């Protein structure tokens, strides 16, 4: 059985809930990543901030990235994590179900790694990777309230 620990990226960098969005942007640029887990003071993940969050949810809405904190943008009720020792198939299933491109990995509640699309592509067969990308990137079209008039 291949576990999440076998494919995760263990050198994950996170930011604190108190770090600013500008700090998040600088960390992303320095590390050439598009997302960072947000952790509380005890290393427990409480959210993820993406480069898109910085642009769309912070800057475009008139917030100052130099004073807005990552904690303000952490959506804890929407954060999904996984344990390191579960089967990769179960983690992929969760990622597909919730259309997650990144899945923080925890041990005893603390962040120890992350699984990303790149990790999946590096460690799993091409067919599995293709199916995963297709499922996660699939756009759900809104269902019209009423059928169009004929």
Features:
150 residues; alpha/beta; three-stranded mixed beta sheet; 6 strands; 19% strand
The run of helices and strands is: HEHEEHHEHEEHH
Return residue spans where pLDDT drops below 50 for at least 5 consecutive residues. Answer: none
Task: Please state the CA-atom Rg, rounded to the nearest Å.
Answer: 17 Å
Number of DSSP-assigned strands: 6
Distance between the ends = 54 Å
If strands are numbered along the chain, what order do they take across the biggest sheet?
A: 1-2-3
Our count of helices gives 7
**What would the average pLDDT be, to the nearest integer?**
87
Strand content: 15-25%
- What global shape is seen? globular
Q: Summarize the main sheet.
A: 3 strands, mixed
What class, by secondary structure content?
A: alpha/beta
Give the % helix.
Answer: 25-40%
Task: Describe the 3D structure.
The mean pLDDT is 87. The protein has helices at 4-7, 21-31, 51-59, 70-73, 88-97, 117-123, 126-137; strands at residues 15-16, 35-39, 45-50, 82-83, 102-107, 110-116. Helix 5 runs parallel beside helix 7. The chain starts with a helix and ends in a 13-residue tail after the last helix. A three-stranded mixed beta sheet has the order 1-2-3. It has a three-stranded mixed beta sheet with strand order 4-5-6. By secondary structure, the protein is an alpha/beta fold.
